[in-house]
Automatic annotation (TrEMBL):
Domain Xylulose 5-phosphate/Fructose 6-phosphate phosphoketolase C-terminal residue range list: 585-786
Gene3D superfamilies named in the record: 3.40.50.920, 3.40.50.970
Pfam families, per database record: XFP, XFP_C, XFP_N
Domain Xylulose 5-phosphate/Fructose 6-phosphate phosphoketolase N-terminal: start-end pairs: 4-368
Co-factor(s): thiamine diphosphate
Top-rank taxon, per record: Bacteria
PANTHER family xref list: PHOSPHOKETOLASE-RELATED
Name listed for the protein in its UniProt record: Phosphoketolase family protein
Position of the signal peptide: none
Organism this protein belongs to: Shewanella electrodiphila
Length: 788
């Protein structure tokens, strides 16, 4: 194909997809514009965003040209919000919709009628990219995540190029702004490449964008400063914009190929300058230029549906008729009497081979691309049976050892990574550096620690960037962990929500198969944020995620190191989920053997027989590692004071929005009575906000017996134990609450109740006086040891 023929093909392809995008937004019948439109052809409710569609179509056609020319794997991510009519138009033309939906969207006139009638209709097709659409790996409704997801998708996929269209409005979001820094992290020798294309159409929904008012020099300086090689395409330049874009795409491909070839031939490519295309085309390009005295094309007025009264206003309908007629769609395809469609040969020349179409990119579907992790041997990692119960250890360090061994076992598979916001050491995961390093593509100094070009730990101080990269990595079939300070996990709460929506919606799509879980590890927990103070005391992410669908979200709160190991193993076996593992990084008592931990993990709720009496008078429950320590300390105290009282201890280590324990446990509702008894008082000590547990046990008929303790939003820079004191989760508070339950039930009399309560309150006063005078907790608190 000559270059002139390529440009002709591109122009025809974009005309065809612009027509199909417009028809989807407006038409419920006469979708191929075989006659002039009438009012009754128009949908009763016009939805969608026209302004971005021409740019999406323009880039899609140019990506196809590279695929056809080089026969290479591409994936196309669309960042600009609700431009799905354009995506769907291209998926139809390339045949991907008909491949996956042969009955509802055949490759003929009926298929076009289907996508037009159902676009943005009830129970139809959404206005943004979605899992029901082939080739998509990102829900497109929320802006800012496209580029980070693209970077994650190309990790360990050395032959993949992710073309990512970034909207200039989207580029103003925090997550997208941070995503440019991923060029510091991705090794060209072992990974694929991202080709960012910034669509500078100049406007957001009601005003100009920052980039839209920057000149070429300013754009060039900004992206050179970010470490990229900017290539400018501008429809206001003298050269035809199709010619400019074809040259820009060719140059970008050559640069990517050069960087990768040099790196794969052994050259240390420091600071690789990946290309970025800065594409300036008018918002609403090729649509109605002006109407009713308003400038539409090249203005924010074209952001959504223009001439939006076509169902009732003759002037609007006339404008739409002229608009659709301008594409001359009938010249671009033949439709026979049976409705079969054949596109012009020039358009066909830009449709890639079936297996290379963006809509049929196999990396976007899960299933056979997912390789299970080779799992470490927990017997070699766990605290063994010879370890005395109550001996101290660090849960997060055990998790780090598990990840170290998993990296070693899966070295050749290259299907496991950690995405850590600068907290790998702080969160006690440093054992992984015995096997791998932190990835870094810019200069590495001789004194830098554990850094290399091809490290498997992706570390940068941006939760948004790294969570987005993990999204892209897991939905394309690989396994990952996102460890972060508990307080700052809330930064990615909305991103996690979008991920969950994507996974949940995917489960109802026949061609999408399960993908590895997204594993969020919360450490640096609020109970030990005594030194950083109130700003670092925040379990909100856990509570927010426990509002989500129970099939998608599980929260694992292991009480010790061995249970942390069994839940880590469990998390990496899970599919189509977001798991939250909550584990401390300080010395804490170790309670369970490996066999006991496996039993605990199976149900997520377990009576600890070694700490419990038969036929209890009261039940004490703990959920979380630090609060479990306080529970066990309170058992020692109350048994000293009331040796004849019988107490049961229940450990809860798994939660979802259906309630306590695993799904298997929740399918046996009678187990709640069996575990918590039918009539005894329950004191429940929880790691996070008490209301979280209150909601989870609300439907349980015995919930009125529960006294739920947890973080009450009280904190400051203080001592570790005082964090529990301030929030009523300390051992002394638990003794007070158990004594009250025992008094209510008539197990102890008023004199005993008053004496115990007075004793505990006095100890709390003495504790406060001690830490004010000495600045640290008393030795009996710091050095507490479990005794039965």
């Amino acid at each position: 194909m000559t270059h002139a023929n390529e440009i002709t093909s591109l122009k025809k392809f974009v005309r065809a997809t612009n027509f199909l995008a417009t028809s989807q937004i407006y038409l419920k019948q006469n979708v191929l514009f075989k006659r002039d439109l009438k009012h009754e052809d128009i949908k009763p409710r016009l939805l969608g965003h026209w302004g971005t569609c021409p740019g999406i179509n323009f880039v899609y056609a140019n990506v196809n040209r590279l695929i056809v020319k080089h026969q290479r794997d591409f994936i196309y991510l669309v960042g600009p919000g609700h431009g799905f009519p354009a995506v769907q138009a291209n998926l139809f033309v390339e045949g991907s919709l008909s491949h996956f939906y042969p009955e509802t969207i055949p490759y003929n006139e009926a298929g076009i009628e289907d996508i037009c009638k159902k676009f943005s209709a009830a129970y139809g097709y959404p206005s943004h990219a979605n899992p029901e659409a082939p080739g998509q790996i990102l829900e497109g409704g929320e802006l800012g995540y496209s580029l980070s997801v693209a970077w994650g998708a190309v990790l360990d996929n050395p032959n993949l190029i992710a073309a990512c269209l970034v909207g200039d409005g989207e580029s103003e979001t925090g997550p997208l702004a941070a995503s440019w820094y991923a060029n510091r992290l991705v090794d060209p020798a072992t990974n694929g490449a991202v080709l960012p294309i910034v669509h500078i159409n100049g406007y957001k929904i009601s005003g100009p964008t920052r980039m839209g008012r920057m000149d070429h020099e300013e754009l060039d300086l900004e992206f050179r400063g970010l470490g990229y090689h900017p290539i400018i395409v501008d429809d206001e330049l003298e050269e035809d914009v199709f010619e400019q874009m074809a040259k820009a795409m060719d140059l970008s491909y050559e640069m990517i190929n050069d960087i990768q070839t040099r790196a794969r031939n052994g050259e240390d490519v420091c600071k690789p300058r990946w290309p970025v295309i800065l594409m300036r085309t008018a918002k609403g390009w090729t649509g109605t230029a002006e109407h009713g005295g308003k400038k539409l094309e090249g203005n924010c007025e074209s952001h959504q549906v223009i001439v939006n009264k076509c169902a009732t206003d003759p002037s609007h309908l006339t404008a739409l008729n002229e608009w659709l007629d301008s594409y001359k769609f009938d010249e671009l395809c033949d439709i026979n009497a049976e409705g079969e469609i054949t596109f012009d040969k020039d358009i066909q020349s830009l449709i890639p081979p079936k297996h290379l179409c963006c809509g049929r990119q196999h990396l976007s579907y899960g299933g056979e691309i997912v390789r299970a992790l080779a799992q470490p041997d927990l017997k070699k990692l766990s605290y063994g049976p010879e370890t005395p119960r109550g001996s101290r250890g660090v849960s997060m360090y055990k998790m780090g050892e598990w990840m170290r061994d998993a990296f070693k076992l899966n070295r050749d598979q290259r299907n496991l990574r950690i995405f850590s916001p600068d907290e790998t050491y702080s969160n006690q995961l440093q054992a992984v550096f015995e096997e791998t390093d932190r990835a870094w593509q810019w200069p590495i100094k001789s004194w830098d620690q554990d850094m290399a070009r091809d490290g498997r730990v992706i570390e940068l101080l941006s939760e948004n960037l790294l969570f987005g990269m993990m999204h892209g990595y897991t939905v394309t079939g690989r396994h990952a962990m996102f460890p972060t300070y508990e307080a700052f996990s809330q930064v990615v709460s909305s991103m996690a929500d979008q991920y969950c929506k994507y996974v949940y919606a995917s489960q109802g799509v026949h061609f999408r198969k399960p993908v590895p879980s997204c594993n969020v590890v919360l450490s640096s927990l609020l109970e030990r944020q005594d030194h950083n103070g109130y700003s670092h005391q925040n379990p909100s992410f856990l509570g927010a995620m426990l509002e989500k669908h129970p099939d998608i979200i599980s929260a694992y709160l292991p009480a010790d190191g061995n249970t942390t190991l069994t839940y880590t193993e469990r998390a990496y076996e899970d599919r189509d989920k977001l798991n939250i593992l909550v584990a401390g990084k300080k010395d804490l008592p170790q309670w369970l053997s490996l066999d006991e931990s496996r039993k605990q993990t199976e149900d997520g709720v377990m009576v600890w027989d070694f700490a419990s009496d038969e036929n209890p008078d009261v039940v004490l429950a703990g959920c979380g590692d630090y609060v479990t320590q306080e529970c066990m300390a309170s058992l020692v105290l109350i048994r000293e004071l009331l040796p004849r009282v019988r107490i049961r201890f229940v450990s809860v280590t798994e939660l979802n929005s259906n309630g306590l324990g695993s799904r298997a446990f929740q399918n046996k509702p009678w187990m709640m009575d069996e575990i918590f008894t039918e009539d005894k008082g329950v004191v429940f000590n929880y790691h996070g906000y008490p209301n979280t547990i209150k909601k989870l046990v609300f439907d349980y008929k015995g919930s009125r017996r529960f006294r739920i303790k947890g973080y009450e939003e009280e904190g400051s820079t203080t001592t570790p134990f005082d964090m529990g004191v301030r929030n009523g989760t300390s051992r002394y508070h638990l003794v007070i609450d158990m004594a009250y339950k025992l008094f209510q039930q008539g197990v102890i009399d008023e004199t005993q109740h008053v004496a115990i309560t007075t004793d505990m309150l006095q100890r709390l006063v003495e504790h406060r006086n001690y830490i004010k005078a000495n600045g640290v907790d008393p030795k009996e608190i710091e050095n507490w040891v479990w005794t039965r």
